[in-house]
Amino acid sequence: MLHALVRTPAEPFSCARRLLHSVTAPLFKETGLYGFDHLKSAKGFQRMVDDAIERSNELVNYIAGMPSAPEIIRSMDEISDTNSLVEMEKLEMLISYSNTSGNCLLREFVEEASRASLRLNEYLHYLNSNPSLYHAIVKAEQNNHMLTEEGRSAARHLRIDLEKGGIHLSPEKLDRVNQLNIEILQLCRQFNENIITDPGHVDIFPASHLPKKLHHLAKTIYRPSSFASKRSTGPDSNLKERGFRLVTEPSTLCSILQLASDAEVRKKAYIRGNSVPRANLVVLDKLLAARHEFAEIMGYRSYAEFALKDNMASSPEVVLSFLHEMSNTVRPKAEEEFKKILDFKMGESGQLVEDLEPWDEPYFTRMMKSAAQNLDYSVNMLFHKLRFLVRVVHLSRRLGVFVPRFKIKKGEASDLCTFCYQRGRRISETDYQLPIVALVCNFSGSNFASVHLHHSDVETLFHEFGHALHSLLSRTDYQHFSGTRVVLDFAETPSNLFEYYAWDYRVLRKFAKHNLTGDPIPEKLVQSLIGAKNMFAATELQRQVFYALIDQALHTMQPSSVKDTVSIVADLKREHTSWKYVEGTHWHTRFSHLVTYGAGYYSYLYAKCFAATIWQKMLQQDPLSPAAGSALRSKFLQHGGAKDPTVILNDLVGNCVVRKQNGGIIPDITSLGEEMQLFNSS
């Protein structure tokens, strides 16, 4: 898949397809939808695409004339920027989120955006397979003495990105690569659609087995009573037993496993929820085979090798060495936590219990956290203001446009996502195109004046704001490197870093208020939240390592392997966790990161390590320090992807943050290990 002319950032759109609704409908008849003048009517989408294609063709013709190296790179970047501004999938999703009431007019906008998207994608394929553009980039790279350091980096990345699509291959191989790219895209879509359309369900009888706190998630159902004989004609023949049906999509399944005291209910829900969608077993096999064939044509031994070559890690071997180090480091503490859960289960049951089941973990860990920290999980935080967030970067002038899009959804879970409408780039020596970033938030509540957030929502808000700041504060010459357009295993670092602010009392007291008195959140409550978070942190980290190992194993698997994906996942779970694998389950068939981050899930763990070191070395003492904020901006965020991430990290906190390993770069795990007390377990 080519990314040279329209590259997508690593994270901000990853949660997009999970959202169904978002903001109130904009007044598009007056201003145009989201400020686009053409979009005062649905037909404006075609006009936008027409304009983008017309301008792009002018630039293509200009580049074909082989101007100077700087002009080639500048024009290529403008083509990318022109088409990024009319990425119809992005606009289509944003409109869908706006359409909270099934508005027919907005539905027309969605349909027109979809049609325009197909046309734009066809044109992008033409651009990304255009030999004139490729030859021009090769020429620019050869004449790199005429380019700035960032220009040389842009030329190199543009060439590599085009070559990742096979433009340098023979016509026969290029045709097959194009076929595989289409097939891979279709399989990825099918995988995600299956997750949505087949979430599974579980029926609970009798109704008394389901706690009342879960009734709002369930649908009442009936079945013939076991007391009524099939042949009975008496008064009991019409008796029906009342029960509940629960859809086992992830959020509901999580609630069942945490709140249902009946172990059989939890078991049924766990097995069912982790056995769908079964169709994705076949879809995943086809996807892995297509990716492997694609990688082989491109000259690589595996898809993981292809995907990782230009990342910090550089190879699957480096990633696996990092993951195995993490697994070995976290195991002692995770085993301690496992034993604590087992002991607690025995105490609750009053009898000898030999083992823990996978459906025990969410239920008993929640009870243990609540008991140990005296924590009421119903506690919420009043959403008071976001203004304090920008203090950390010490803004003194207009650096971009931040568009918060808030929607209140009564009775539904909160969800948040970041979108970049427009990326920053240098237009001339005096003019800079400012980035435009939207933070789309679905909050659970009844009105804006009293939005109450669970602490997990606050953490997600800070995570997304980290992505937003990365885009807003970057000052790259080329939008090709703007903001989150960095190598995959560096992209999550700002977002993980900003999660720390959601756990710091000095920050929380500025906006987390009591809904009646207005008093700031008590420090003791924050300490309880932190204590609960840390109780089973090693178990959660071990789980993330396990997920990353699955991703690597599946994307290095050879087609001749006798092991199927279920066997691979089962073996990795037994080897790297203390928890059982349940026969017949295949949780990984709704692990959407396998399709969106193929061979790249490890990047979340890289980010956790980088963020832990940055927090400890420069922010922990005073997270709102203007000096620290300025350093974070000038040494890190403003460079986007234009500067080597290793250089950025070393400039920011010194040489304690990364290590060289077999030709690649891995994070130093010391700070994260100290934070989680992984090095002093008894």
TrEMBL record:
Cofactor binding, per record: Binds 1 zinc ion.
Keyword Membrane belongs to the record: no
Cellular component terms (Gene Ontology): mitochondrion
Family matches, as InterPro entries: M3A_MIP, Neurolysin/TOP_dom2, Pept_M3A_M3B, Pept_M3A_M3B_dom
Signal sequence, renumbered to the chain: none
MF term (GO), any: metal ion binding
Cofactors, names only: Zn(2+)
Location of this chain's protein in the cell: Mitochondrion
Residue span, Peptidase M3A/M3B catalytic domain: 257-377, 417-654
Residue intervals passing through the bilayer: none
One GO BP annotation of this record: peptide metabolic process
Keywords assigned by UniProt, alphabetized: Hydrolase, Metal-binding, Metalloprotease, Mitochondrion, Protease, Transit peptide, Zinc
SUPFAM superfamilies: Metalloproteases ('zincins'), catalytic domain
Pfam families: Peptidase_M3 (PF01432)
Family, per entry: Belongs to the peptidase M3 family.
Name by which UniProt lists this protein: Mitochondrial intermediate peptidase, mitochondrial
